[in-house]
Amino acid sequence: MFKIKPKCSICEKEIKGNDVVFVKMNYPKSRGMTEIKAYLQNEGEIICEDCSQIK
After folding, report:
1. What's the rounded Cα separation, in Å, for the pair 35 and 48?
2. Which of these, 1, 10, 42, 46, has the minimum number of CB atoms within 10 Å of its CB?
3. Collapsed DSSP state (helix, strand, coil) of residue 50
4. How high does pLDDT run on average in the chain?
């Protein structure tokens, strides 16, 4: 299994456990079970707390 290492899409800072992040993404059409970390990484734009305050 691959290890997901999420990074901020603006500053490329690595996101660690318990960090506050914002995810910009479209609301999913389908329902069902999914692995949330992989889904957010693949379908969303992750933004760290510092970069979200700049915008």
Report:
1. 21
2. 1
3. helix
4. 87
Confidence band (pLDDT; 50, 70, 90) for 55? low
Domain that includes residue 46, residue range: 1-55
Q: Say how many CA atoms lie within 13 Å of 22 toward its Cβ.
A: 11
Predicted confidence at residue 15, as pLDDT, reads 93
Exposure pattern of 14-40 as b/e (b: 16+ CB <10 Å)?
A: ebeeeeeeeeeeeeeeeeeeeeeeeeb
Number of domains in the chain: 1
- pLDDT at position 51: 94
Length of the chain: 55
